[in-house]
Amino acid sequence: MSFVPEKVLRKLDNLTTQEANELSFGVVRVNDEGIIELYNQYEADLSKISVNGVLGKNFFITVAPCTNNRLFKGKFDAGVSSDSLDVEFLYTFTYRLRPTNVAVRLYRDPLSKTNWIFTQRR
User: Band of the pLDDT at 97, cuts 50, 70, 90?
Assistant: First the structure.
């Protein structure tokens, strides 16, 4: 069972920043190239990087370079390429903070064609 409720997935095409900030897990919307379009407060608190400091930046290269590998970004790229992305896995963030274990869900909304990175501390 995923930590991301189905009701959240059904609302992604019009999820507001305020609604994302009310969730108890990290929410990051990125375009197909990995540029951050939405970054919620949970994720900002987890990464210790302000929301304003990440919008418009590349998640995999600038914000979380520890994810720029085959395990994380490779899954993202494959999902974007095939237009089908819904995978969960455990991961350890190591950039800018002590090693932090998280659950990750990478998801591409089939309606809006938007890409989402969900994280929750474990």
Answer: low
